[in-house]
């Protein structure tokens, strides 16, 4: 317990664990990265006009037939966090971009540790067309290498 902590340690705790007189916790960059990595397959759903029933949304997402687990929690009146257990489900929901659940319109974007409900996410999907790419260059490894220069390739259209 705290009775075993010296006065100097208590002062250090007070110095390093308070902000404007309020208790706080300081995380190392390694701890922050680790904690954020656990949400790497998470999306934020934004309902511009709000969502009244979170259980309704959870049930509708379950009916999508996703593999693995999915957890949906409310962040505030207009935002939900959709935490998925695998990249396949994450990509499927993110690529769709917009969803309608009855009369509730939801836009999804990738969660990041810097998420702020007052600011639109700077992370966006980009669809790249290469209309004059010769067929023999339309090869998965080549296109993944090209895409890596600007981001992460999520999906390729199939020829044929």
Automatic annotation (TrEMBL):
Pfam family, one: DUF4283
UniProt superkingdom: Eukaryota
Stated name of the protein: DUF4283 domain-containing protein
PANTHER family for this protein: GLYCINE-RICH CELL WALL STRUCTURAL PROTEIN 1.8-LIKE, RNASE H TYPE-1 DOMAIN-CONTAINING PROTEIN
InterPro entries assigned: At4g02000-like, DUF4283
Domain annotation DUF4283: ranges: 36-118
